[in-house]
Amino acid sequence: MTDADAPAPSPAADEVEVDVVVLGVGPGGETVAGLAGKAGLDVVAVEENLVGGECPFYGCVPSKLMISGARHAAEGAPDWAHVVRRIREDATHDWSDGPFVERLEKHGGRVVRGRGRLVGPRRVRVGETTYVARRGVVLNVGTRPAVPPVDGLAGTPYWTNRDVVAITDLPASVVVVGGGPIGAELSQVFARFGVTTTLVDVAERLLPKDEPEAATVLGDALAADGVRLVLGQALERVSYTDGHFSVTVGAETLTSEKLLVAAGRTLQLDDLGLETVGVPTDGPLEVDDHLRVTAAADGGLWAVGDITGKGAFTHVSNYQARVAVRDLLGEDGPWADYRAVTRVTYTEPEVAAVGLTEQQARDAGLDVAVATGDLGARGWLDEAAGVMKLVADTEAGVLVGATVAGPTAGEVLGLLAVAVHARTPIEVLRTMHFAYPTYHRAIETVLWRLPH
After folding, report:
1. How many CB atoms lie within 10 A of CB 354?
2. Which of 7, 79, 296, 413 has the fewest Cβ atoms surrounding its Cβ within 10 A?
């Protein structure tokens, strides 16, 4: 028998060959595993926590149920028990991922429970087993709540979003640390259910990544709901004694029954084994428009979701997942395009945005023009305060960004997202019919305020 006729050596007993390993099964990882499985690939999905990730169990879904309940509370029908039941029974199935696992396996994926770690190109170890991916590994390990290095905080029973969605009883008072979307949304929830609420942030305004005009509208709304805003002040010290928190902010000490820390997110790239494939862990992973991690030795590594730094949103993660699967299957695009990333803060009023803010557009060196306006006839009829802001690249004659703060702003944003994504000429947008009296009709007014 010649060497050519000899059978290939069998893999070691603790090695299993598959087509694709998905490491981390949040929304994007679930989409990758499901689509690749349906395409006939042999897929292993590795998850040490809940399949489905942050969004359905601790983020988007339960928080929006809380917000829905708060809306009814503002209308005079507070029922926290109903919110608790809906989160536990309807949304999270008592924090069981069985339905997610069943759906993924129905599509052809296999779920492996445990802590996964890269141990070289296309190799992931879980326990005593190493999975060797013929086509590649897709990372979707997401983020966890960030905890600021504040004196005394670590030794206290503070909440993060992961804790607050599971509470069954409301406190009498709460201090919320963080004026971003999570802090703003949950502050409004608590206030509308009668909890004495104070929101603290070192930033000078709410939603620092969004337009300042929208932050003003939201700040007024939260204040009207009874939220006390303490902005531009650093959180210096926290202590917990006899069932109450003492929170030192500047020269003032706040006292509350509970403390919610909503001060951003931390990438879960630690102890992932990225050094075994030559990938740095000091920030979001650099990916190309195919979602391949550019620094990975020998290729074969993709990343989707928050860890790519392209937008910490479920819809971005799912979008990236479809791009990555096209690449894994050898298809020809379309590849990733982020010029029209949308984002919504689900307060009342909502704050919705797409593309670039005015400052981002100027920083990019564009020839920028902006225009603002209120919510038009519908806003006047409904006595609804709000603002719309459009950001244009005057040289190209297109919108590059837009923000709406007002009722159903996330729905009004749809038309503007299409305009930014498709680079629809502003002159074409001005020729449209805008139904009267709707909130989206305010777009027409603001369009005509841009230079023409």
Report:
1. 25
2. 7
Residue 248 tokens read as: 């030192």
Is-contact 318 341, C-beta < 8 A?
no
HSE (CB half, 13 Å, CA atoms) of 216? 8
Domain limits for position 204:
153-263
DSSP classification of residue 12: P
Contact between 184 and 206 (Cβ < 8 Å) = yes
What is the C-alpha to C-alpha distance for residues 22 and 29, in angstroms, rounded to an integer? 6
DSSP state of 90: I
Which residues lie closer than 8 Å to 44 by C-beta, 6 or more apart?
16, 18, 20, 21, 22, 109, 110, 112, 131
Could you give the strand order of the β-sheet that contains 258-261, starting from the edge strand earlier in sequence? 228-231, 196-201, 173-177, 258-261
Whether 416 and 429 map to the same domain: the answer is yes
Q: Tokens representing 193?
A: 């259910």
Which residue type does 75 have? Answer: E
Instruction: Specify whether 140 is located in the same domain as 274.
Output: yes
Model pLDDT for residues 181-230, shown as the tens digit of each residue:
999 999 999 999 999 999 999 999 999 999 999 999 999 999 999 999 99
Which tokens belong to 247? 């929170």
The reply to whether 159 and 224 lie within a common domain is yes
182 beta partners: none
